[in-house]
Amino acid sequence: MNKSLALLTTLTLLGGCQILPSTAPDQTPPATSAPAAQPAAVPSASFSPDTLYSLLAAELAGQRERYDIALANYMEQAQATGDPAVAERAYRIAEYVGADDAALDAALIWADNAPTNLDAQRIAALQLARAGRQDEAMRYMEQVLNAQGDTHFDFLALTAAQTDPETRTGLRQSFERLLERYPDNAQLLFGRAVLLQQDGRNAEALASLEDHPAGSNEVAPLLLRARLLASLDREEEVLPLLKDGVRRHPDDKRLRLAYARQLLEQNQLEAAREQFAELLRRYPEDDDMRLSLALINLEAKERDEARTQLQTLIERDAHSDTAHFQLGRLAEEENDANAALEQYAAVGPGDEYLPAQVRRTALLVKAGQAAEARRLLASARESQPDVALQLYLIEIESLTNQERLGDAWQVMGEALQRYPDDLNLLYTRAMLAEKRGDLASLERDLRVILGREPNNSMALNALGYTLADRTTRYAEARALIEKAYALNPDDPAILDSLGWVNYRQGNLAAAEELLRRAFKLMPDHEVAAHLGEVLWAAGKQDEAREVWRSALADTPDSAILRGTLKRLTGKVNP
Q: For residues 122 and 152, is the Cβ–Cβ distance under 8 A?
């Protein structure tokens, strides 16, 4: 037997057992080693001995899981021969190993050499869309549409989100052109709406969906309509739409989840809880859903159910840190400090780590174990150096709240030795200096911050307010606060400062207007103290007392409120 015939025979035999799995056009292939799969189509064209040898080597390499060699050989021969079967095989291997560029190149060779193969045309379109080449993708997908095959125009539209406006405009024009020939094509209608939404033309996108009933009750258009309605401040229409969608598609997870979330947004907690419970019943392996339901149960005070779900998450090693943190909060609500401390201690590095340290520190301090809290924070700084700065700030805040200002100052010094250029530490030291009555240190630190960041509105406001409140440098204070206001005109803290400096300068009407705005945005005890004082000075004592009374109901231990009352009325109660 000559060499060429032997190679051909061997290759044909190898074709009976596919080494590398084939995947459907719209599936993501697995990332694990290749399992046994269905027989692959073997190239049947007349190849040169060199080509046959290269393909045989590729199959043997695939059998030994050397997919890099298999892919390189198949790509080389696909480019050399233009054979559709070889190109398809190269595409399958590239998809399997996640070689995006090779998958695109192979798909194009396959499609261009098999113009009547709708799978090839569709795959080429999808690969081009993933590569951001939407215009070219449209040409291939249009061939599938003309042949009445299954299309993916919706995918093409969705992938256009990352492109530039000109590309999206061209793609939308192509959709409009095809819609003239296929006016009831649901994918084209949906795709056009998606493209309009991507350009911020939400009203047109919604009208496009509502004016054409074709496919409007399918899941993707329903979800898009819901998002568009919400963006156009028509929230009252969203819930009925999603509810009807769930009725039509009771088994669709995305739709039921959107409905459940909308119920939450509209404060229908019990109905939302029922929907999340149904989702978890249908998808018991979905730990994201389990966590959502646990958090809703906590909000609904269904503590036993929440506890069970959180403990299950820990047992499944899913969202464990969040589960431990929430179990700690639950234990605090039940006044079980020891259980709470145990749960917070179990929280590892991640999003909940620092909040857990804050809560653990507060519990220990409350229990008279401040020294233990500080020891644990020092230990945490050694074990978690990436968040050491934040742990310093937690300790400083804890000491400050205990009125242990000297200890807080000492820890601040240690922190600044380690992080001398950190502006957050400098700002915190400035606020601590104010509490210690050291206005010179406060001003020095804030000036350093402003020297580095002249438009730091927080530092501008802090310095301006302090000068207005604690000195008579009103003109200087006003200039600082007005600069902060120009940077952030809707910040209630800045509005409060601007109102206060106006009061200190005797501009009662302006002060009252600004402080009313601030109090509406941020009805806290300090703004209430300021607004009440201005009202008192303006002869509106009854209203002032009502403002103070309301604020004290929320913050009964407010020193600034009590001090203001004592100073103006001679009493500590309104």
A: yes
Report the distance separating Cα 352 and Cα 344, nearest Å: 9
* Mean pLDDT computed over every residue of the chain: 86
Instruction: Identify the pLDDT of residue 25.
Output: 37
Q: Cβ(388)–Cβ(418) under 8 Å?
A: yes
The secondary structure of 159-208 as a DSSP string is: HGGGS-HHHHHHHHHHHHHHHHH-TT-HHHHHHHHHHHHHTT-HHHHHHH
Residue type, 322: T
Handedness of CA 562, 567, 568, 572 (dihedral sign): positive
Q: Residue 91 CB: number of other CB atoms within 10 A?
A: 32
Q: Within 13 Å and on the Cβ side, how many CA atoms surround 380?
A: 28
* Model confidence pLDDT, tens digit, residues 344-370: 999 999 999 999 999 999 999 889 898
In this predicted structure, the answer to whether residue 434 has a pLDDT above a threshold of 60 is yes
CA–CA distances in Å: residue 367 to residues 344, 363, 399, 452: 15, 6, 14, 41
Rounded Cα–Cα distance for residues 402 and 366 (Å)? 9
Task: Decide: helix, strand or coil at residue 221.
Answer: helix
Please say if the pLDDT value at position 26 is more than 70: no
- Nearest Cα to 129, choosing from 104, 147, 102, 166? 104
Mapping DSSP to helix (H, G, I), strand (E, B) and coil, where does residue 266 land?
coil
| Residue 520 burial (CB count, 10 A) | 11
Give pLDDT, residue 215: 63
DSSP 386: G
pLDDT in tens, 265-306: 988 999 999 999 999 999 999 999 999 999 999 999 999 999
Does residue 110 contact residue 124 with C-beta atoms inside 8 Å? yes
3-state secondary structure of 474: helix
Quote the pLDDT of residue 214.
64
DSSP assigned state of 349: S
Alpha helices by DSSP H, listed for 37-133, are 49-63, 67-81, 84-97, 100-113, 118-130
Task: Give this prediction's pTM.
Answer: 0.70
